[in-house]
Specification:
single chain; alpha/beta; Rossmann fold; N-terminal domain of TfIIb; 2 domains; seven-stranded mixed sheet; four-stranded antiparallel sheet; 11 strands; about 30% helix
Length: about 250
């Protein structure tokens, strides 16, 4: 398994600032598009689960949830946040629990972090094996319009014992989004700096649909976050919903 150590460095930021907010925003979409189609106490896999806040929301509604992420520190924090959920450090491309889940969800553009189409297709094929017949796969991705409109500029947070700056950019020729995160944390009386760069790949709708179809998924539906789901600020985010045939 490939370790995602670069995500360990910023896991505490994700846990404090991004995980709770993303769970609050994404859960209603999962509820609307997926949960209404599942039996009570269904098995759900939260793929690339981060620090577990969405998994916690699902578990609170009596679903049997497994969370998987490639970052050991993300999973350590997830286990602290939600001890009653099974969390595993696994690579989405090679993790194997065949024919177990009624649904697989992957949110907050996690699959954009797969840096080529074959890796993306490998995960899609793998998810197909996770699902029971009739199982549902939901994920969201940043699309080209989103990178062009939202991946620019910077923002920062300053607190008494930490500060960080996030700088985003998008290379249209390479179709790669880049997020540079510089962090300062106070340890005792000493400020320490760390720098992390995270990359995302911009996939086209044709590439995504083709990967799903080749893996065997059917009933493929695409929802624009802004136009179809009412997320006024989320230009260029799309949700992909598909099903494994019974």
């Amino acid at each position: 398994m490939i370790r995602y150590a670069e995500y360990d460095t910023i896991a505490w930021i994700y846990n404090r600032y991004w995980g709770p907010d993303s769970a609050q925003r994404f859960f209603p979409v999962v509820e609307k598009l997926v949960l209404s189609l599942l039996p009570p106490h269904a098995y759900i896999l939260d793929l690339c689960c981060g620090t577990g806040q969405l998994a916690e929301s699902l578990a609170q509604r009596s679903y049997r949830v497994t969370g998987v992420d490639g970052s050991e520190e993300m999973i350590r924090l997830a286990r602290n946040n939600t001890p009653n959920v099974e969390f595993l450090v696994e690579d989405a491309r090679t993790f194997c629990q065949p024919d177990r889940y009624h649904a697989v969800v992957s949110t907050y553009d996690s699959l954009n972090h797969l840096m080529d189409l074959e890796e993306f297709s490998q995960v899609v094929r793998n998810v197909f094996t996770f699902l029971k017949g009739g199982g549902i796969f939901l994920f969201d991705l940043n699309m080209a319009e989103g990178y062009q409109s939202r991946w620019r500029g910077s923002f920062g947070v300053v607190e008494d014992d930490h500060a960080f700056i996030v700088r985003s950019s998008f290379d249209e020729n390479e179709r790669v989004g880049r997020t540079a995160i510089t962090v300062f944390r106070l340890k005792g009386k000493t400020w320490r700096r760390s720098d992390t760069v995270l990359l995302q790949r911009c996939f086209s709708p044709v590439e995504i649909q083709s990967a799903l179809e080749k893996a065997g998924f059917t009933d493929i539906q695409i929802y624009d976050a802004q136009k179809d789901l009412g997320w006024s600020r989320e230009v260029g985010r799309a949700f992909f919903l598909s099903r494994k045939p019974r």
